[in-house]
Backbone:
């Protein structure tokens, strides 16, 4: 009887464990994710590396975790998600296995394309869980940088070929006219 | 000497008043305009450092100068032969060597016009002024030497070959071959074969020199080897041209 009782208790505990999944009884997830912005001032064109950390603080191993980066523009009145197309070559990583207590660190290199205030966050998706785990949003500022100046380029790029065209047309006209005049004098 | 000067003047003026010459300059300006507009309209390109933008623009200017030198150089003797004006030219009191030198000087004049036309573009893209003056100096030096090299060899070829088409085909093939540093990109040139190719390629030497001056801000001491290679090629081109035009056949 005692043997059956122990087995029942064991079975119930196993069921509880499965139902609880990757979270503690109070709902705190076993997976902890965070991202850190580089120190120092950032400006357009820089290529800083953001450091991501995913920790399995649970009791059992996790497999097939997907970690991805999210970037949002935080300019008041113009908040919007940013397409990482130009910003980052590495948009997501897969962690094959994260054993209990293990910490996985990733580098998230980014190229800063625009100036302004932005926020970055990491999201971890566990295939056995129906709720992704998101890190804190880390805000950072990107300063403007003197880049190729359109105010100087446009007048030159449009004006010079037109001026050249006018010059050659005028030159050709004067040349032809003087030749005609010469012919007229000779005749 | 007076006849030689007259011939040089005639060849130089023809570079400007002929419709072909004008068309080449307008097309050249069009190419530089398109690249400049790309620099401001493309997000990735607009983030380039000014020095990097100046370097890229200089590389395009050099490529244009070489293209013009190859096209005009091919026309030098072969074109005159096809238009049946070579005989008239050869009965003037100037030697074939002097004709060749006059034509080479016209090519250099053509490069000078292109260089002057390209200064506003370089000023526009190098807005902070970082290394802009050294870029102009080295662009002028390397461009002149490259025009002498490519123009000289193409004129020599033009004096020896019967048809303009054949000369132009070989000239353009040589231009493309030497332009491979631009097409291949720096990563493919890091191997031993790539480095050797860069060392013997005058076009690559000019680009590397501009890169080290404009982007890396290196001094004149670092430019001695590429400059020496370019000068050697230029001397060889002039020698080949003088040999090829000792006797020009109709």
Residues:
């Amino acid at each position: 009887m005692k043997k059956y009782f122990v087995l029942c208790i064991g079975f119930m505990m196993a069921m509880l464990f499965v139902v609880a999944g990757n979270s503690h009884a109070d709902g705190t997830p076993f997976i902890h994710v965070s991202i850190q912005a580089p120190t120092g001032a950032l400006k357009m064109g820089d290529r800083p590396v953001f450091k991501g950390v995913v920790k399995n603080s649970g009791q059992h191993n996790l497999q097939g975790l997907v970690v991805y980066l999210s970037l949002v523009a935080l300019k008041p009145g113009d908040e919007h998600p940013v397409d990482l197309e130009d910003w980052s070559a590495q948009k997501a990583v897969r962690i094959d296995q994260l054993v209990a207590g293990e910490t996985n660190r990733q580098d998230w290199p980014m190229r800063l394309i625009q100036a302004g205030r932005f926020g970055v966050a990491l999201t971890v998706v566990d295939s056995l869980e129906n709720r992704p785990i998101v890190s804190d949003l880390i805000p950072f500022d990107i300063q403007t940088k003197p880049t190729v100046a359109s105010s100087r380029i446009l007048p030159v790029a449009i004006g010079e070929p037109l001026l050249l065209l006018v010059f050659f047309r005028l030159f050709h006209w004067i040349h032809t006219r003087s030749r005609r005049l010469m012919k007229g004098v000779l005749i | 000497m007076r006849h030689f000067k007259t011939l040089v003047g005639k060849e130089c003026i023809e570079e400007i008043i002929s419709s072909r010459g004008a068309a080449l300059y307008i097309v050249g300006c069009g190419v530089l305009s398109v690249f400049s507009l790309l620099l401001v309209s493309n997000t990735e390109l607009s983030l380039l450092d000014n020095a990097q933008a100046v370097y890229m623009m200089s590389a395009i200017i050099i490529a244009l100068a070489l293209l013009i030198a190859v096209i005009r150089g091919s026309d030098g003797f072969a074109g005159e032969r096809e238009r049946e004006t070579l005989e008239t030219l050869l009965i003037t009191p100037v030697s074939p060597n002097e004709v060749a030198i006059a034509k080479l000087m016209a090519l250099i004049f053509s490069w000078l016009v292109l260089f002057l036309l390209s200064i506003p573009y370089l000023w526009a893209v190098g807005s902070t002024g970082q290394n802009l003056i050294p870029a102009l100096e080295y662009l002028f030096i390397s461009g002149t030497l490259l025009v002498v090299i490519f123009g000289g060899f193409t004129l020599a070829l033009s004096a020896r070959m019967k048809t303009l088409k054949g000369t132009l085909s070989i000239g353009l093939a040589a231009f493309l071959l030497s332009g491979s540093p631009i097409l291949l990109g720096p990563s493919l040139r890091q191997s031993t074969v790539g480095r050797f190719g860069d060392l013997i390629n005058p076009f690559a030497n000019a680009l590397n020199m501009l890169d080290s001056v404009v982007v890396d801000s290196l001094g004149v001491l670092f430019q001695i080897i590429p400059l020496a290679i370019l000068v050697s090629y230029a001397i060889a081109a002039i020698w080949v041209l003088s040999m090829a035009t000792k006797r020009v056949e109709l």
In short: Confidence is low (pLDDT under 50) at residues 12-21 of chain A.
